């Protein structure tokens, strides 16, 4: 990757971090340090990623948790491996049952959107297949943070407080009381710098460590999860947990200007990023900060999302294949729809067949792109009493429309927003990248990758550059630091440009690139969060 390591002539950013023996980039300094500690104990990048991921469930519970899902891309032995640890809907749930409970759409909170959590199984499977240290050793830093406490960071405290204010209005009934007891003891969430601890969380992590996550899916923890969800009126059963296994899948890719961009296949939305990049590769002369570049990026994202939201679901239920959607013929057909003015996206018909992200690398060439989430900050609002497990609400994304590809069905995995990314060139690893934040994620992937590949920015600068976010129709949010002249010019092209009051909805990302000649690692972490790059 050819970039000036310290300076870009048009934009001023923080400098990147360099290291040689190892690097962990996360949205929380304590989690990054947990991963680095494991590297220094003799663990590899996989062990470090597990340590950081487990620590993030403690130090950033407003974005992820033990009761959420996870995906991973792992570069090891000269090959990229992909793990899908997203859990399915309960086997006893149905559209009819949800409608009978009085809902016209999937609710955001409570027991109905609870799906099988995949994160603990992801940690155990990654450790089993590629880890060097025992799972218990990788989880030890997270256990210590939970049992002994830690000072809450500013961005986490802000998001925690915002969630608490919303939940005081939205959460009614006894099922939600454990959330307030766990995350707002004494009636308020922790302030920045305030020590917070969760002994229940620590005990649960110990049981996961000692059992290799078996207790979570087939032991006492499983029984307590099921009993609580069913008492609250949900459908999750012991059979659902017992049957779950994370799945090793073949990653999907698209070429982009000499690089290969890799994503997890559906049910993840990484395909949206690849669809947009395929469209954009057909345009030459794209320049950083140019109005025409922003316009083409926005239009490409619109078309990619139209296809993604029409077709992406559990791959067993997809009618359009990934290959057909990424084909040259279909890409050319869709690219021809990008005109000189803002359009309204529609899906095509191809022929044929709250989230945390982290990146880790070691001195041996192993690299990990990992993401996990409870969804919508703390998830469903259900916290299993006595064990500190906040359960995800990933089922919220299911449709109750019988004609929709992503309609709710028993045992089905939903369209999933969390996506890790990875970049290679000529069969060699460049490195992991990711931008968390709901439907911002594929938009963040496209913008940060183009910043690096097209515009020559180093990882830190590629992450720090001002972002835009398409939200539907012709509406595009732009960050406070977005160039005002470009925003005005885009408005003249028909885009409904709106300046956001803050950067909270524009994602938070990390990147680590590796120089194939020297093995030197170059990392960045988003300035929109509390993150850091821990380096060795």
Automatic annotation (TrEMBL):
> Which Pfam families does the entry mention?
G_glu_transpept (PF01019)
By its UniProt entry, which InterPro entries does this protein fall under?
A: GGT-like_enzyme (IPR052896), GGT_lsub (IPR043138), GGT_ssub_C (IPR043137), Ntn_hydrolases_N (IPR029055)
List all membrane-crossing ranges.
none
Which protein are we looking at?
Answer: Gamma-glutamyltransferase family protein
Q: Which organism is it from?
A: Cohnella hashimotonis
């Amino acid at each position: 990757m050819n970039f000036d390591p310290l300076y870009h002539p048009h934009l001023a950013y923080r400098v990147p971090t360099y290291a040689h023996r190892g690097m962990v980039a996360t949205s929380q300094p304590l989690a990054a340090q947990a991963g680095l500690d494991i590297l220094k104990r003799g663990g590899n990048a996989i062990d470090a990623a597990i340590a950081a991921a487990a620590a993030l469930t403690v130090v950033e519970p407003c974005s992820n948790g033990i009761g959420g899902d996870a995906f991973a891309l792992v570069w090891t032995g000269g090959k990229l491996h992909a793990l899908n640890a997203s859990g399915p809907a309960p086997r006893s749930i149905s559209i009819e049952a949800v409608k009978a409970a009085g809902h016209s759409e999937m609710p955001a909170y409570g027991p109905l959107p609870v799906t099988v959590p995949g994160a603990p199984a992801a940690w155990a499977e990654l450790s089993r297949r590629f880890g060097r240290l025992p799972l218990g050793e990788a989880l030890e830093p997270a256990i210590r943070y939970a049992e002994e406490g830690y000072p809450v960071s500013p961005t986490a405290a802000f998001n925690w407080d915002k969630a608490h204010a919303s939940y005081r209005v939205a959460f009614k009934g006894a099922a939600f009381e454990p959330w307030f007891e766990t995350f707002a003891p004494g009636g308020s969430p922790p302030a920045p710098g305030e020590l917070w601890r969760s002994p229940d969380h620590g005990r649960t992590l110990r049981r996961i460590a000692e059992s290799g996550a078996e207790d979570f899916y087939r032991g006492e923890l499983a029984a307590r999860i099921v009993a609580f969800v069913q008492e609250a009126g949900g459908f999750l059963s012991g059979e659902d947990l017992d049957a779950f296994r994370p799945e090793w899948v073949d990653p999907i890719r698209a070429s982009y200007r000499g690089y290969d961009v890799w994503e997890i296949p559906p049910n993840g939305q990484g395909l949206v990023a690849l669809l947009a990049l395929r469209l954009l590769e057909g345009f030459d002369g794209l320049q950083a900060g140019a109005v025409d570049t922003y316009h083409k990026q926005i239009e490409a994202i619109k078309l990619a999302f139209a296809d993604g939201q029409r077709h992406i679901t559990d791959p067993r239920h997809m009618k359009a294949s990934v290959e057909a959607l990424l084909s040259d013929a279909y890409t050319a057909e869709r690219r021809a729809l990008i005109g000189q003015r803002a359009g309204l996206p529609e899906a095509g018909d191809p022929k044929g067949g709250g989230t945390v992200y982290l990146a880790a690398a070691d001195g041996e060439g192993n690299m990990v792109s990992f993401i996990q989430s409870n969804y919508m900050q703390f998830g469903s609002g259900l916290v299993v009493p006595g064990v500190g497990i906040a359960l995800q609400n990933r089922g919220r994304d299911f449709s109750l429309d019988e004609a929709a590809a992503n309609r709710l069905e028993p045992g089905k995995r939903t369209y999933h927003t969390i996506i890790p990314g990875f970049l290679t060139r000529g069969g060699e690893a460049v490195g992991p990248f990711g931008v968390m934040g709901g439907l911002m994620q594929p938009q963040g992937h496209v913008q940060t990758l183009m910043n690096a590949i097209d515009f020559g920015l180093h990882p830190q600068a590629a992450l720090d550059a001002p972002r835009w976010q398409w939200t539907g129709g012709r509406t595009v949010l732009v960050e406070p630091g977005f160039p005002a002249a470009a925003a005005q010019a885009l408005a003249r092209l028909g885009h409904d440009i709106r300046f956001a009051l803050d950067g909270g909805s524009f994602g938070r990302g990390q990147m680590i690139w590796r120089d194939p000649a020297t093995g030197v690692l170059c990392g960045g972490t988003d300035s929109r969060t509390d993150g850091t790059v821990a380096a060795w």
